[in-house]
Write a structure and sequence with these properties.
With 98 residues, this protein is an alpha+beta fold. It is 27% helix and 39% strand. The protein has one domain (2-85): Alpha-Beta Plaits (2-Layer Sandwich). The longest helix has 11 residues, at 14-24. It is globular.
């Protein structure tokens, strides 16, 4: 089943966010990533990601690709919440995810 992750990155700037996003995606979208959205909130940035599975998210966050992308920032992501995703629509119509 798909998994959503809502996280906050205190004190992250727009420039840092864009740098990390570009580094993560240099080799294309990470395997298993379905959605990523990020934007400024008071005191930093907030991100929402949806992964095909918990295993796909774990593999990405444990990868050298992720570690290298975030090496330039000092802000540690704080996971606010996760939840299973039953349905998803990314502009091509709703579908069940699992």
């Amino acid at each position: 089943m798909a998994l959503a992750i809502l996280a906050e990155l205190p004190e992250l700037t727009r420039e840092q966010y864009e740098l990390v996003a570009k580094k993560v995606n240099e080799a294309g979208t990470p395997a298993g990533a379905l959605v990523h959205a990020g934007g400024p909130v008071e005191g930093g940035y907030r991100t929402l990601e949806v992964w095909e599975t918990q295993a796909a998210a774990d593999a990405f966050y444990g990868s050298d690709r992720y570690r290298e992308a975030v090496a330039s920032i000092t802000s540690e992501p704080r996971v606010v919440m996760t939840w299973p995703v039953h349905g998803l629509d990314v502009g091509s119509g709703w579908r069940a995810t699992g």
